[in-house]
Amino acid sequence: MSEKKKCTSTQECESCAESKSCSEDEKSAHRERMVGEKLSHIDHRIMVMSGKGGVGKSTVAVNLAVSFARKGFEVGILDADIHGPNIPKMLGLDHSRLIGTPQGILPVPFYSNLKVLSIAFMLPENDAPVVWRGPMKHGVFQQFLGEVEWGDLDYLIVDLPPGTGDEPLSIAHLIGEVDASVIVTTPQEVALLDSRKAVVFSRMVHVPVAGIVENMSGFLCPHCGKEIDLFKIGGGEKAARELQVPFLGRIPLDPQIVRNCDQGNPFVAANPDSAAARAFIEISNRIEKFVNPAGKKEEKESSIQQPRPSTGKEGKATEAR
Predict the structure, then answer these.
(1) Tell me: the pLDDT tens digits for 100-124?
(2) CA 126 – CA 231 distance, rounded (Å)
């Protein structure tokens, strides 16, 4: 009996007419090849993690992605929080839907050089819960990485749910070579305790740790100008020093960040001269140097264009297959 030819189809197995004659092992190998082909067009893959919820991880992920895009880089942001997908809301894309094409699924554009993908784009309504076990989540991540037309990206930012469970494991396994993890914490001891676990997890799965971000670090009183340490200060830097990983910076607590997130207007774009926006930009610079120490920035600067805000209409045509 002749050996089956290696599949070279760019279609997913579910819509391929030849898939009925393929074994499950062949289908799995095909999906892995599709993921590898799509990832070959992405220069840097960065996971944004936190040991616990409520530390502003998604806020950091969104503003880092927008910071990179505003520098002229081609950026994608993958919302890997299946049960609590917040990225579309933070970018004002919560009414958008994915478009399916013969070539694959198209992510939703925010800027012309910032593409967004989230399970929220596939839900029938915003309040619909996703009640899935681990294997289902692994399968959708494989689809998001292998069947989505990301195109050529400089950075893919993956916003992970809190903790060190199924989602981070699946993403680390599927991507294979993650360039860096960014650990977000607040200065509180409870948050720091869990953020340390995220650092150890990254080392266990062989992901370089770009560093720790201390979010909600101090609050500047709008009346007297005095800095108030609502959640203490300096804990993230201390943890980074003890764990021997870089400290990426402090982001001060700013009420406008919350308002901008609720409005779907990224803080770094709306308030570029604020102290918190400058902190986000400096953190993005440090991450850029970490993943690209040789530096391609000069090549990018010559072709930087002002990002084009999405009208929100591009992603509303049809549901993805």
Answers:
(1) 888 789 999 999 999 999 999 999 9
(2) 32
Q: Which helix (H) or strand (E) holds 200?
A: helix 189-204
| Residue 199: DSSP 8-state | H
Which structural domain, as residue segments, surrounds residue 55? 37-183+254-293
Q: Would residue 213 count as lying in a domain? A: no
- Report the chain's terminal Cα–Cα distance, integer Å: 36
What CATH number does residue 98 fall under?
Answer: 3.40.50.300
Is 134 a domain residue?
yes
Strands 114-118 and 75-79: parallel
Long-range CB pairs of 229-232, under 8 A, 24+ apart, other chains included: 229/187, 231/186, 231/187, 231/188, 232/187, 232/188
Give the residue-averaged pLDDT of 294-315.
Answer: 48
Asked whether residue 305 is domain-assigned, the answer is no
Q: What one-letter code names the amino acid at 285?
A: N
Count of structural domains within the chain: 1
Tell me how far apart the alpha carbons of residues 273 and 284 are, in angstroms, rounded to a whole number: 15
Is the confidence at residue 304, as pLDDT, over 50?
no
What are the backbone dihedrals phi and psi of residue 260, each rounded to the nearest 5 degrees, phi first?
Answer: -65, -40
Arithmetic mean of pLDDT over the chain: 85
- Residues 208, 167 contacting (CB under 8 angstroms): no
Residue-wise pLDDT tens digits, 264-281: 999 999 999 999 999 999
- How would residue 236 be classed by pLDDT, with cut points 50, 70 and 90? confident
**Strands, E assignment, 88-208:** 99-101, 104-106, 108-111, 114-118, 153-159, 180-185
- Check if the beta carbon of residue 107 is closer than 8 Å to that of residue 75: no
**Is residue 240 in some structural domain?**
no
**C-alpha–C-alpha distance, residues 248 and 236, integer Å:** 9
